[in-house]
Amino acid sequence: MPSRFQTIALIGRFADPRVAEAMEALATHALARGVAVLLDAAGPITPRPGLALLPEAELAARAELLVAVGGDGTLLHVARLAGDSGVPLLGIHRGRLGFLADISATEMVERFGDVLDGNYSIDPRHLIEAELTDPALPAPRTARALNDVVLQKLETGRMLDFETVIDGRFVNGHGGDGLVVATATGSTAYALSCGGPILTPNLDALVLAPVSPHTLSDRPIVVPASSVVEVRLLAQAPTRAQVTCDGVVLGDLPPDGRLLIRPAATRVTLLHPPGYDFFRILRSKLHWGRGGRHPQRDT
User: Fold this and answer.
1) Annotated catalytic residue: which of 72, 123, 177, 246?
2) pTM higher than 0.90 for the full model?
3) Which end of the chain is more exposed for a tag (fewer CB within 10 A), N or C?
4) How far apart are CA 155 and CA 157, in angstroms?
């Protein structure tokens, strides 16, 4: 990874005026420093010296840094674009509640400049891989996730009955709306709303969080990140279930199918500007320490 970046790609939703404004400001700043900028050719940007337009799928192959401008959903999308390229990611927060894109709008240009100067920390994040087997299909479907793999019901009013097996050992039979299998990175996403714990991103662990479980004793658990999690539907009333990876549909899980979740062979590398503090982000996003009994602290 270069200490200073010569070519970067800016990726975001131009339909959002806040994102479009931020991307224009970042592009102008980078060009003024002699850094080449790549943008999605589908966006409403006119090429100019130092700024090139490419199909979005080709950006990771041409850039030394991918900059996600938006919310956590945008950064997850950029992580998929990065694939196995090894290109690092930087998140500029212009969305709603989010934990991945940590550079705020108020300090955007300054912190972006720090990273371009090579003043950043490296934060490798674990990925998980989902393999969905359907006997009706010729081959399993696979996808990777930075946040989570989710099994969810497709019909309202019907409960899913399924079982989990971890590393070949039966764990539990479940009844409810589904299951979230989250990385430490994804512990602050869907798993958090299911009552799961917050894990610091450097932990080698997974959270298994049932979604609206039928029994109160069916609680989230934390297992090693090296675990292989198997999920099967039980042969009950015909209920459809769907599997998503970071919010993108992988496919339906039939009663005679199988969902395997295992560690991925690669990781995603996030970059942070100076002063990055995960606990400060938690305090900001979750409004910790703002009660009347405790004074607010910024450090």
Assistant:
1) 72
2) yes
3) C
4) 6
